[in-house]
Queue: 3 jobs
Job 1
Amino acid sequence: MCYNFLGDYMKFIDLNSMSDEERIPYIKEVFSGKYTEASKKHPDILSLIKLNNNSRPNPLNEIALEGVWGLNLILKYNKKLNYLVICPEYIKTAEAQSLVAEAFERDAKLYFVSKKTFDYLSEEKNPQGIITVFFMNEGSFKSIDPAKPLVVLDGLEIHGNIGTILRTLDALAIYDVVFINRKVRINHPKLVRSSLGSFLNMNIIDTNFDELYKYLMDNGYTIYLTDTDAKAIYMDTEYKDKACFVIGSEKYGISLPWYEKQYEMIKIPMNGDCDSLNVSIATSIILYDYMMRYKR
C-alpha cells in the first residue's frame, strides 16, 4: 500500500469509520518509509514549541499553521515547506491524507508524533492531526498593485487587530500592506491565527517612513491619514485615483513625520461618548466604503 502519491491521490479513503486501532497502522502503512517518528525532544519539535511560544529568534521567518485548512492554503499559494507534524490518530479524511502526500512530494519532512505529544503542540479543541511549518516570503514594492489602495499600518501593537485588518484586506482583495514603526513580529503565532491565514496571499512590506514616503511620491499616491481630529468625514471624501490609507497605532495614533508632509485627513463621525472605534473596525469601514464606491 506504499503509494506513488502523485499518481494515487484518488486511492485515499475516508477513515472516520475506523477505530484508532485500525486507523493508526493504516496511516503508517500508507506513508511507510516517508516519515520519521519523533518525540518532544526531537530538535524540530522543540523548534516548533519555541516558535509557538514566540520564545526564540526567527531569522528564517518560519510560521506554523495547524489543520487541514492551513496546509491547503500553504500548498495553494506555493509556500516553501519545512516540515509537517502529524498525529495518525487524528487523520480521518481522504483530503488530509492527500494534502500530506502532496506536501511530501514538495520536499516537506514528515514527523509522526504520539497523540499526547500532538495534544501538547495543538491549540485546537478538535485537532485535525496536522501542523505545518513553512517559510514566509518577503514583500516588495515592485509587487504592489497600483489599481488597488495601499494600506499602511503605522506602529500597531495588538496582534489580534492586525490579524483582523489582514482578514478585511483579503475580503476586499487588497493584497498589499506596508508596516512602518513595527511593534510586533509579523509572523507571531497570535497574528497568524487571528488572520485565519489570509496573510499567505499578501505582499507584506516591512520598511521605514522615508523609504515608504519616497515610493508614494514617486508613484503618484495621495495620502489619507485616518485621524479622529480630521474635519473631513470619510463618506464625503472624493478620493483621488491612487489612494494610500495610513492607520495609526491603538495608543499613539499616526506617527508625527506624516504631518510634516503632503496628506489629507479623514475620520469616522462619532455621535456618542466614545471618541473612536477599534482600529480594525475603523479600517474595515473606511476600506469597504472606498472599494464599494470606486468598485475596485
Job 2
Amino acid sequence: MRVFTSPQEYIQGPNAFQSELFRLNRLGNHVLIVTDSFVMKMLGNKIVHNLTVAKIKSEAILVDENNPPELLVNAQESVKKFGCQFIIALGGGKAMDLGKMIANACELPIAILPTSAATDAATSRISVRYDEMGNFVRYDFYAQNPEIILVDTTVILNAPAEMLLAGFADGIATYIEARSIWQENGRNTMGASPTIAALSLAKSCHEVLIRDIKNAQKAQAVGVINEAFENVVEANILLSGLGFENGGLSLAHGFHNVVMGEKAMNVTGSHGQIVAVGVLLQLLAEERQSEYETHQKLFCHLALPTTLHELNLNLSEEMHQYLAKRILLTRNAGNYISRQVNVEKIMAALIKLH
C-alpha cells in the first residue's frame, strides 16, 4: 500500500512571525508555547505580543529547565490550568521533538515555528528521543503531522550560517536514501510503499540544494534574503521533511543513529554534519563511486566533514566491523538499507572514509 502524509498548511516568508500568526486562530485562542530560554529571550516577547494582536493568549514552558518526564507533567498541568487549545513548538530540534510529544500526550494540535533551517523535523509526525547525555535512543511516531508550519525567513537569516549548511546536508541525504528505497520497493517511515510524489519531492530537494546553496550562503553572509535563500530554506524544511518521512530513511541516517547511540564513540558534530558523512558512506556502500566523488568534492568545498576523523571517530579494525554490523541492524528500527549492501561493503566504505 502506498501512503503519503503531510501537515495541513505551510507558510514561509520574511517577517512571517509578525504578519502570519493570525493563521493559527483556527487552532484555538489559547496556546502553550514550548521553547527554550535562549529562544524565549530572543523572540519570546515579540511572539507573545504578535499572538496577542492575533487575539491568542499564551503560556510558555522551557525545555531546558525541565527534563522530559517533568516537562510532560508540567505541560499537562499548564494545559489543564489555562485551558490551552493547541501547542506551539518554537525553536530548534529539541523544542520540536518535545513539543510534538506534549501535543500527542495532551491530544492537541501543534504548530511548528522553527528558528533555523538546520533540520527537516518540522513537518513530520516523528520525534527523536535522546537520553540525558544526548545519545540517540529511538524514534517516536505519532498519529498525525503538525497542523501548521510557519517559517520566518528573517529569523532563519539571522541564525548561524552553519545551521543552514547542516540542513543542506540533511536535505541531500533525503534523495540519496529515498532513491534506494524506491528502487528496491522498500518501505518508508510508515512501513508503507513510497509514492511517486515522495520520490519527486526528494529529488527536487536535492536539485534545489545543489543549484542554490552557494548563492544562498552568499546572501546570508551579507544579510539579504534572495530567491536562492528562500529556495534553500524551503528545501531544507519542507521538501526534505516530506521527502524523508514519505520516502524513507536508509543507511545515511542509520550511521547517524548508531554513532549517536554509542556513548563510547564520543562522536562530535551536528546532526547534519554526521549525516553528511553518512551520505558518503551510503554512496560508497552502494558502489556509486561517481556520485561519491561528486558529493565529496561539494562537501569539501562547503566545509562539511567528509571523513570519520573529522567526527572524532578514530576506529580500530574491530570497531569498523562492529559499526558496520550495528548499521545493518538499523533495518529493524525503521531504516531501509539496500539488499545489495552487506557488512563487508560497509566496512570497506568506513575504511575509505577513515
Job 3
Amino acid sequence: MAEIRDLTPVCEITGAVAAIAQPRLISCTVVDAAGMESDSITIVIAAGDIGAWPETGQIIGCRMGYKEGKVVDLGRFKLQRVSQTLYPNTLTMTGTAARFDAKDPTELKRAQSKSWMNTTIGGIVSEIAGRHGFSPRIHGSLGGLPVEHMDQTEETDLKFLHRLADLHDAVCKPVDSLLVFAPRGQVKTMTGRVLEPVNIQHPPENTPTHPGYVTGTVSGPEKRQFNGCTAHWYDNEKAEEIKEEVGGTPRKRLPDRYDSKAKAMDAIKAEMHRITRQGDHLSLNCPGNPMLAAECLLSMSGFPIERMSGQWSIDRVTHTFNGSYRCSVNATRPV
C-alpha cells in the first residue's frame, strides 16, 4: 500500500439508508468486538431538509478502506434507534449486529430454567439456535462433546451458552443470521470470513500531525481475583456431594454440580485456564485499516517500548471515519 498520506479514505454506507446517508455523511463508527458483545454501528449525517426519519428495523451497513487500496465490508446491522440534534442539526442512526433485536421477539434475552441431560454441545447449540431463528455453526472439535447434565437456572439462553463456552475455552456469539460456537479466535473464520494477521510497524515520522501517527499504551495483567477453583460432584455410591479444589485461596466456586469427579475436574481445568490466561493488555490508536478485526492476530514491530512489540490477539476494534479514517484497538497478549 502507498504512503498513508497519499491515500484517500473511503466510507460507503450500504443497505436501507444508503441513499439518504451517503451524500449527507458526517461520520461513521463501527465497533467490532469478540465474545458475546454485540457489534454496532453509529452513523451521523447532516439533517438539513431530510424530512421523515428512516424507519427502525431496517438492515444497514458500511464499507471502509481507501480509494487506492482495499474497501472492506464491515458487517450488517439492524437499525435500532434514530435521534436528531438541534445544533448542529444532525441525525444519528445506531444499529447492532443484525440478529440483535431490542424487541427480542423470541425471548433470546429472557431468563429461563432448564436441565440439559444426556446431550452434546452441538445438540444444545442447535436447539437454542433453532428456537431463536439462527442457523447454528459449531466447530467440529466441539459439537460432539458430551453434556451429561448441566442446569440452566434463571439464565438467558445467551448467558447459558456463554457459560457453556467458557467451560471449553470457546466463544458463542450471534453473527448476522448465524449462532457460532467455536474456539477462541475462530468465530469470524467460522462465518466464512478470512482473518489475515495484520502487521503494524513504528512509523519513521511518528508525530501527532502525521497521518500515519501511531500511539498506544501497554499494561501488565491485573491482579487476579481468584487463585484457585472449587467444584462439586455427586457420588451416587456414597450418596453424598464431594468437593474438589485446585489452586490456592481465594478460590472461585463453580455453580454447577457435576455427576462425576472427571466432569468436575474438567470444569476446574477449563476455569483455571481462563483465570491464568491473563496477559499484557494493549490499547492502540492507529491509521484506519479495514483488515483489523476482533479475533485476528496483530503483529507490532519497531516500537521503542519493547513490551509493545510482538504478537497480540485483538479483542475489540473501533473503526471511525469522519473525513479521515482511524482505528482504536484493544488487544491482549496470547498466553
